[in-house]
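Problem 12. The chain below contains 158 residues. Write out its predicted structure in token notation.
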Amino acid sequence: MGATRLSRNKGFTLLEILVALLVLSIGLLGLAGLQTFSLRNNHSALLRSQAVVLAYDALDRMRSNRDQAMRGDFSDYNTEFDEPSADYSGPDCALDSSNCTSSQMATYDLWAWKADVERLPAGAARISIDANNKATVQVLWSDARDNNTLTVAVETLL
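Solution.
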């Protein structure tokens, strides 16, 4: 009565499977590249945020020791990029600031702050206070995205 037909298409051929695997692997390689790009940019944004926080930390330290900061060019807060945080041997002004002079407090603040800045990749910093009590804080670091040295600068009146 009815003739049964044999179907020739019973599944995928080996060639179709190989093409599908090739397309899938190219897509996964693209996703891996996108993930690497995203991680690198996120790390760069983290370093930029840390530099901004460190710049404002220096200003807050100066505001808390206003007597020393308001000395302008003669303030102990003035520092240059090439001055590393040397070993500090004075009193621990963070624990008991009542036993510290304003000069000792400034020396301690710079030591602790420079140590934090040096944790950035190739981190360096400078603080300058002019005769009009305008403080400029600059933080430098190396960015791995394009091997550039980036700078955050904050200026304010004390």
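Discussion. DSSP finds three helices and three strands in the chain. Students who got a different answer should revisit the alignment rule from Section 12.3.
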